[in-house]
Amino acid sequence: MMRLHSVQLMCLVLMTCRLPFGPVDGAATLKIIETGSAKEVLALLAPIAFPIGITTSVLTGRGINKRFSALGAFKAGFLGRVLLGFVWLLIYKFAKTVGGDQPGIYTIIILGVCCQAICSEIMFVSQMAFFAQVSDVSMGGTYMTFFNTVANLGNKWPSMLMLSLMDQGPFIFSGWETFVELTTICSIGGVAWMAAGGRLLDRLEQMNPSDWELSSPSSRVVTEDSMELINQVKKRRP
């Protein structure tokens, strides 16, 4: 599978596209708590964002291939997540200035969490839709499982890396907080990734179905004959 150029490019995208979100995913909540926000209140944000995520998933699934392409939606969600990196910086700065226990801060945080849930769900649903489009049907669920595994790895390692770097900075800008520095650098890097990765996503979407196929023509014939035989057996059953 990894010998296919299309699969290699897809893995490259999946392993790098969430690096710009690493500081926010790994440390934003901890930094907000340091400003004085209550852990109990922040813990309630996940249930609030849950129905929004479900609604976004349904709407995105219905819109793909009708109003926009799968990777087109992925790019929109990615751009939203990059912009939210700058938004979380402003939220953190504001909470640090006025105090994180103010009611207005919680309202802003809830809005930020909801926007983040929307963008994340758009990216997740669109990438799953693309996996389903390009997967070689003769391989069953192996293709989907492989891409999902790579996507999960690409989703986890950036936040773990950034969290481990929080106590070691600043790295470039002397006097900056490490969280602010890493979030700024990664968000700007996300804009750069969009410039290069956007063209790569367009290239992936324009590839022919044969570029994703693992099986040879002869094995596909065998698979088609097997499916036809199975259908005949089903029809003969009482």
From TrEMBL:
Cellular compartments annotated: Membrane
GO terms of biological process kind: acetyl-CoA transmembrane transport
Keyword Signal: yes
Signal peptide: 1-26
Name of the protein: Acetyl-coenzyme A transporter
GO CC terms of this entry: membrane
Transmembrane segments: 42-61, 73-92, 104-125
Keywords: Membrane, Signal, Transmembrane, Transmembrane helix
Main location: membrane
Species: Gregarina niphandrodes (Septate eugregarine)
Keyword Metal-binding assigned: no
